[in-house]
Design goal:
about 25% strand; four-stranded mixed beta sheet; 16 helices; alpha+beta
Length: about 450
């Protein structure tokens, strides 16, 4: 018998209690993000193996004590016994923590902080830890003050235009109260400074304060990044960056024309709405604390949008319409400016548009501190989205070598399924297997 749910970013299986500290790390990862459950007595494929009742009672007491003693701030899990048919399993349930970041006491904050990325538990980077600190204070990086800047660095003409479009009124004065309400300024110790959000959206010199907060667009001639046909650096405010990047993509991809009556209608090779939504998603949800640009790459068979920082909400939840917001103030202004209709629908809209057009499904890779969205172009081939072998082969378009974990993170396959499909591709001659054990890698033949 199998457990009714698959492994995910909020659910992990263990057939037995590991001898190492993996359970502690997983619990910390859950607590630092959206919470989750760790289940003992279920193997990696979801098969319920169960645990002995006497052992279960000992484990309940030991786990509660150990998790509390080894974590800082202390994590108090809820530990339950659950019987499914004739098998007994133990469920360790953890809520999203209010005092982030949580870490393993013996390893310290810098090395002992863990997060969940897909189905994996990874050690948090310094940037991730900083973001967890803001979350623990109920803040986001975009509302932080820029101490070296002055309020005069904000363009009041652009702010007035935003307010007039928002209220449909003219002659609106930009007051300090309005700037505070939209978190465009921040006050500390009786001093007022422009915020990250204020400078990114309405700054006079955005690239001076945030030289890496830009979008680099490149059109390549083939299916790899070797020969560039056209390139454009999109700078300025976030609104200006979006407009320039969106226009660049549309001028580089193919379109067809049909005559309907007296009018000529044009249709792009991929849904415009998918490009628009995923580009907006990259701008609004990227991690501006990371000093790296958004990159848009157009290849013969696909369009890639690379954004610094992982998804604030795990991708599996976003496909269900659930969303979290990394940049609260930026998101609010984009929504009130009419760029966003409803929160949490951008990814869904892109996928639905591709399905409606009968095109292969986009690929979303939620990596360690980055997100890559891959939009297939219409003429890229006959790959069927439901074919797991072809989905795996598609990843080798952008990577020379991959591990089993890369397949799991990209498509959320069970480990056994990912391994089985890779072995099938090796047997067919499509891939070459290199190494053994945890060091096993695969590359195209």
């Amino acid at each position: 018998m199998k457990y009714p749910e698959p492994e995910s970013h909020t659910l992990e299986f263990k057939s037995t209690l590991p001898k190492n500290d993996q359970i502690i790390k997983t619990v910390i990862g859950f607590c630092n993000q959206t919470g989750g459950r760790l289940i003992l007595g279920v193997d990696n494929d979801g098969k319920i193996t169960g645990i002995e009742e006497g052992e279960a009672m000992k484990l309940m007491e030991w786990l509660e004590y150990t998790i509390y003693q080894t974590t800082t701030p202390p994590i108090i899990p809820k530990i339950l016994l659950q019987r499914i048919a004739d098998k007994l399993i133990l469920v360790v349930k953890v809520s999203s923590g209010m005092n982030k970041p949580y870490h393993k006491k013996s390893e310290g904050l810098e090395r002992g902080t863990y997060v969940r990325v897909g189905r994996s538990t990874l050690r948090a980077t310094s940037d991730m830890i900083e973001e967890l600190r803001w979350q623990g204070r109920g803040l986001s990086f975009d509302v932080m003050p820029i101490y070296q800047a002055a309020v005069d660095d904000l363009d009041t003409v652009k702010i007035s235009k935003f307010l007039e479009e928002r209220t449909k009124e003219t002659g609106i004065s930009v007051t300090e109260e309005i700037l505070k309400a939209y978190r465009l300024i921040a006050e500390e110790h009786a001093h007022v400074y422009p915020s990250v959000c204020g400078l990114l959206l309405f700054g006079k010199k955005v690239d001076y304060w945030f030289p890496e907060a830009m979008i680099i667009c490149t059109h390549f001639s083939g299916i790899s990044g070797r020969e560039a046909i056209a390139t454009k650096d999109c700078t300025g405010t976030l609104f200006e960056q979006f407009s320039n990047a969106y226009e660049f993509v549309l001028t580089q991809i193919n379109r067809s024309f049909t005559i309907r009556g007296p009018k000529r209608e044009e249709k792009f090779e991929v849904p415009e709405v998918a490009i628009r939504e995923l580009l907006l998603n990259a701008i609004i949800h990227r991690n501006y604390h990371l000093r790296a640009p958004i990159k848009v790459a157009i290849y013969r068979d696909r369009i890639e949008i690379f954004s610094p920082g992982g998804f604030p909400t795990p991708f599996a939840s976003m496909k269900l319409g659930l969303t979290d917001v990394r940049n609260m103030a930026i998101c609010k202004i984009f929504r009130e400016s009419g760029y966003i209709e409803k929160l949490g629908t951008g990814i869904l809209t892109a996928f639905e548009a591709y399905e409606k057009w009968g095109l292969p499904e986009p690929t979303i890779i939620d990596g360690e501190n980055f997100v890559k969205c891959i939009l297939p172009r219409e003429f890229c081939g006959t790959v069927q989205a439901t074919d797991e072998l072809q989905l795996i082969l598609r990843l080798f378009i952008t990577a020379d070598e991959l591990a089993v974990s890369d397949i799991i993170n990209a498509y959320h396959f069970p480990r056994a399924t990912a391994t089985r499909r890779l072995n099938e591709l090796v047997k067919s001659g499509a891939l070459i297997k290199m190494g053994r054990g945890k060091g096993t890698r695969y590359k195209k033949h």
